[in-house]
Amino acid sequence: MAKSEPSQPQSPRFSALADAGITVDGDDKVSQEMSAPVADGSTVTITRVEKKTVTEDVADAHKSSKVDDSSLAKGRRRSRPKASMASPPTPMK
Hints:
With 93 residues, the chain is largely without helices or strands. The protein has one helix at 12-19; strands at 29-30, 46-47. Mean pLDDT is 76; it is low at 1-8.
C-alpha cells in the first residue's frame, strides 16, 4: 500500500527528510513540527503508524444444556450460571 505524502512538501524539514530518502505519511508521528526550521545536528524521531483491520474467527466456549425442572411451569425456561461461575450466597444480616 502506497503512503500518501504529507500536506507540507514546501517545509524545510520535509525537504531535509526527502533529501535523505525518508517518507512520512499523514498517520506517522514526527517528534518535531514539519514546518520548524532545520538546524545542523538536529534529531527527528519518526514513529511509523499503520492502521489496519483484522478479522478473526473465534470459537465461543459457551455451552448450554437442557435440564427438566419440575418447579417451572410447562413451556417456561430459566438460565442458571454454572456452579463454578456462580457467586457465593450473600449472608443475611
